[in-house]
Amino acid sequence: MQAKKNIFRFLCISIFFGICYAGHTQADSTKRIGGLTIGIDVSRFLVQIWKPVKGNFEFSLESTVTKNISVVGEAGVLHTNFSEDTYSYESKGSYFRLGTQFNLLKREYDDNDKLYIGLLYGFSTFSHKADYIQITDGYWGSGSGSLPLTSLTANWFEVKIGLCVEIIRNWSLGWAIRTRIYMFGKEDPIMSPYIIPGYGKHDKSPAIGISYSVFYRIPYRKRK
Amino acid sequence: MEVSCNINRPCDKPTKFPVETTFYTSNSEELQDTILENITLYGIGREDSLLYNGIDTNKLNFRLSPFSDTTSIVIISDSNSDTVVFFYKRHLQMVSPECDFAMFFDINQILNTTNFIDSISLLDKILDAGKKEHLQVFVH
Fold first, then answer.
1. B interface with A, Cβ–Cβ below 8 Å
2. Mean pLDDT for back-to-back runs of 10 residues, chain A (224 residues)
3. B46 → chain A, closest CA residue
4. Bridge-partner residues for A17, per DSSP?
5. What gap in Å lies between CA A207 and CA A133, rounded to an integer?
6. A154 CA to chain B: closest CA distance, Å?
7. ipTM field
8. What are the residue boundaries of the structural domains of chain A, listed by start?
9. For residue A132, what pLDDT is reported?
10. May I ask the CATH class of domain A38-218?
11. Measured CA distances, B18 to A180, B67, B123, B127, B139 (Å)
């Protein structure tokens, strides 16, 4: 409970200071450009080639609050379904991440390229089940069982380092390396989840992830 | 996209949980194990397949049926025969991604006939692969 309070306290403080800093520096910023950036993680579609992921979609929204600081939110859904020799497994869930990003590059006028570092808080809610679980005993024979649908949650922190390059006006491509540290959640004592939506393998902390996204920036601040 | 190595690691955890049983004499005030001679062991319902056949030992183990809440084991030593009935709860659990699933047992009650068995003592209701002894069988 105390950990949850600390996380939300951190989020509130970081977003509050980001907005305050934006307001403080606005008067000095004569060449600042801003806007809302929408992104889609296209690497999610590639994951389905080598992982038993049936559906995975993730999008992001990023809003600049100063020349170098932005607030970012990411959300997605994940559906996993696979069959092994001794069981079949299914999980469905959604997730979001919320945090701030800091651009390390000294931005010039009309420059949308970014080398950034970000700190995000992630939350996932999902459910999973297993069917046709084969149990074999050398003496008593073999049979099958199942584990019912169970609802779970996960909370984590994520450090994100990425590069984003504008390809054509307002359209950018970018990748990011993400290191996730699992904090807490509602766990299943009977069966570990194959994958936590938005986090990755449950048995790994820190978990490393890579994303490759397409971004479109909707400029809403007039360039001075 | 999450990064991980797809290496099929071997299962390194137990997935079977036999009842580790030791025979003790009931004629001693101290705990003293005893060897039973010519032991034959089988489960009721599997009379066609013997777990042990004509051995002399003070220790043996056998597994409970993962498909029923009751398992009856017949122990024959020389010409004497006793039946031990286990009543238990089962629960299926994933051991690990490498080991898949296993059936775990919580024993509620044990009943037995008393032809050569005097009494039975269950040391732990939960069958744990880490323990060397779950059941103490005291014989006349």
1. 1-4, 6, 16, 43, 46, 49, 51, 62-63, 65-67, 91-94, 96-97, 100-103
2. 51 44 42 76 82 84 89 95 88 96 80 90 96 92 91 96 92 95 91 90 82 88 53
3. A140
4. none
5. 28
6. 16
7. 0.86
8. 38-218
9. 93
10. mainly beta
11. 40, 15, 14, 7, 21
